[in-house]
Each structure stands twice: as structure tokens, then as C-alpha cells.
Amino acid sequence: MIIVLKRDHKEEERQQLVQTLRALGFAVHESKGVQRTILGAIGDEEALRDLPLESMPGVERVIPILKPYKLVSREFHPEDSRVEVGGVSFGPGPVQIIAGPCSIEDRQLLLETAHAIKEAGATCLRGGAYKPRTSPYAFQGLGEKGLELLAEAREATGLPVVTELMDPRDTVLVARYADVVQIGARNMQNFRLLKEVGNLEKPILIKRGLAATITEWLMSAEYVAAQGNRRILLCERGIRTYETATRNTLDISAVPVLKSQTHLPVLVDPSHAAGTWELVEPLSRAAVAAGADGLMIEVHARPEAALCDGNQSLKPERFARLVEQVAAVARAVGRDVGGGR
Ligand code: PEP
Ligand code: MN
Predict the structure, then answer these.
(1) Would the pLDDT of 45 be above 80?
(2) Would the CB of 247 count as within 6 Å of ligand 1?
(3) Which atom of ligand 1 is nearest to 185's Cα?
(4) Which ligand 1 atom is at minimum distance from the Cα of 128?
(5) Is residue 182 predicted with pLDDT exceeding 80?
(6) How far is the CA of 64 from the centre of ligand 2 (A)?
């Protein structure tokens, strides 16, 4: 339930409303905008059935929430939210590009890649230390050693780092190194994990599940927000369809749909959608044209030697070209790219 207060409501009226709602067992979240104050009442809306909320002093409008998510909804927070990551701002403004290898494998390769992507205009470095692999025999990531290397690359380049957390038992460790904690597609509905990161004071990047609807995805974001962490980034990375020409099908329409449903920044990962490096540039252009606030792209100094996702990883020179292309599209839709391109 969303309660819009009158522009000229009195402070006592607001307090009385909050008290009444709390007495009925609701959690009340306030959003004070420039023009309006909005109260979000979270609880069983049935309990409000007999209460003439709309006629209470100070109330302008009551909007029952049909959608199952509230905190992440546009109704609750009409303005686009901004998520700050070590000096990089995701949301309205420049399109930010996160780039780096699928997995952290080797110190030299990671440092070389990190410097190259920075030079090309990326503003965050990605790299997995814990990898969700389909096969138990495939490279599973370097674990803590990988996190140390990632921190070294951050130190060397100044780029904030994004890395995946797969297991609640590693939360403290991963959060010690990460600037943004990534929840991967396969864990989008790992509710214990979502609650865990909801208690962190770090931004959380939630990738869309392989077969998740947009509503299910937003419910996952709601899990994080409900614990108190509102610094959430959503990342479309392709969904499973009948099509086999690409690894996944990039759902471009998810971008404008999310923009209408939520205030959270929306990112696109064209690499995992495409599965092959040749498609990464055109999909990146499409994502930015559709309104994405950022991109996440796999780049590897030597894709042919990569232990994970080499065929969808761009070489640094190709990535640099992609940034130029994306910058042109960003300008066409009234934006820039971060990193000064
Ligand atoms: C990744 O970004 O490294 C990854 C594994 O992606 P996804 O969870 O989208 O498959
Ligand atoms: Mn990958």
C-alpha cells in the first residue's frame, strides 16, 4: 500500500498515520521527494480494509499495490535511483561499462586486462573468484587467491571491482574484497543468499535467472531491499529460449520494461547472452539504445587461453572499439559513457 501525503500535510498528521499503520502491524518506509512525501506500508493489505485511510487528515491518495514488490517499484520511488560504487555512479547520467575476464586466472593476465580496459574507458573491473560451472570438472575459480589478485588489480588501476558470491558461507570473505557483490543467474532465487547480501553495506548486482520472469527477478531485488540494502543493480544477461543460434536470448525489451517498473539502474551483459564474441558489440549498441544504464562485458588479454568463456571474451583492442561504438549510440540517446569517451 502506498500513501501519498498532501503537499501541505502537517507533521502531526504524518506522525499519526505512521503510528496507526504501525499499530496495525505494518512496517512503514518513507520516501521524501522534492514535491511529495510517500509512505510505503508493508504488511497484509487486508488489515486496512476497514480503515478509511483516504479520508484521514494529510492523505491525498492511497494506491493499493497489486504488484508483489514494493521497495524496488517505481510507484514507491518515482525518481531513478543512483548507486555509487567507489566514485562511479550507476543510474541517470553516463552509461558505465564494467569489463574484465570471466574468471580470475593469472596475475599477469588480470593486470594486463585491467589496465587495457581502463585505458579503453571501462569504469569497473569484473572477475570471478568463485565460478558457477555446469560441470564439476571445469575450473571452479581461484577462491580467496583470486580475490587477492582482484584487489591488487584494483590497487593498480583504481577501478572498483565486481565479483560473484555463490555461497552464504563466503559472504564475509567476498564482501571484504568486493566493491560490488554479484549474485549470478543461477543464484537469483537463492533466497538465503539474497537475505545475506541484503545485510551487507555494499551494492549488489543481481543477474537475471536463466528462466526468470521480470516479476520474479524484481522479487529477488525486493528480498535484498527488504533487509535494508537498497543499493541494487539489475543485469539482464539473456534467457533460455528455443533458439540455439546464441547461448541465450538477450531480452532487450527487459530494459524498457524494467525502467517502467523499477527505479533501480538496469545493466546488460551481452557476453553471456551471445556466447560468442562477434555478437557482443552489436548487442551492446542495442542495449544502450534501449536505455541501459550500464554494460558488463567479458574481456580477456588472451581469450584463446581463457579457462572460462574464452569464446565470448573480447580482446582488449576489440573492446576499445566497442567502447567507441557504444559512446556514439549513447550520445545519440542523450548520454555519455563513463570513463570520459
Ligand atoms: C558471470 O558473470 O561470470 C556469470 C557466471 O554470469 P551469469 O550468472 O549471468 O551466467
Ligand atoms: Mn562468464
Answers:
(1) no
(2) no
(3) 8
(4) 3
(5) yes
(6) 41
> Is the CB of residue 237 below 6 angstroms from any atom belonging to ligand 1?
yes
Pairwise CA distance, residues 6 & 61, whole Å: 8
Among 202, 101, 105, 203, which residue's Cα sits nearest to residue 149? 105
Q: Looking at the CA of residue 238, tell me the nearest atom of ligand 1.
A: 9
Q: What is the mean pLDDT of residues 245-251?
A: 98
> Which whole number is the average pLDDT over 171-195?
98
Smallest-distance ligand from the CA of 313: 2
Phi, psi of 178 (to 5 degrees): -80, 145
Taking a C-beta distance cutoff of 8 angstroms, is the pair 65, 75 a contact?
Answer: yes
Indicate whether 2 pLDDT > 80. yes
Q: Is 161 helix (H, G, I), strand (E, B) or coil?
A: strand
DSSP-assigned letters across all residues of 120-159: HT--EEE-BSS---SSTTS----THHHHHHHHHHHHHH--
Residue 197 · residue 226 · CB < 8 Å: no
Ligand 1: nearest atom to the Cα of 235: 9
Among 89, 94, 102, 124, smallest CA distance to 326 is for 94
206 ligand 1 Cβ < 6 A: no
Cα 260 to middle of ligand 1, angstroms:
25
pLDDT for 341 beyond 70: no
pTM: 0.86
Q: Which residue has the cell 564474441?
A: 277
Q: Give the pLDDT confidence of 75-117 residue by residue, as tens digits.
A: 999 999 999 999 999 999 999 999 999 999 999 999 999 999 9
| Contact 207 CB / ligand 1 (< 6 Å) | yes
Question: Which one-letter DSSP state was computed for residue 312?
Answer: G
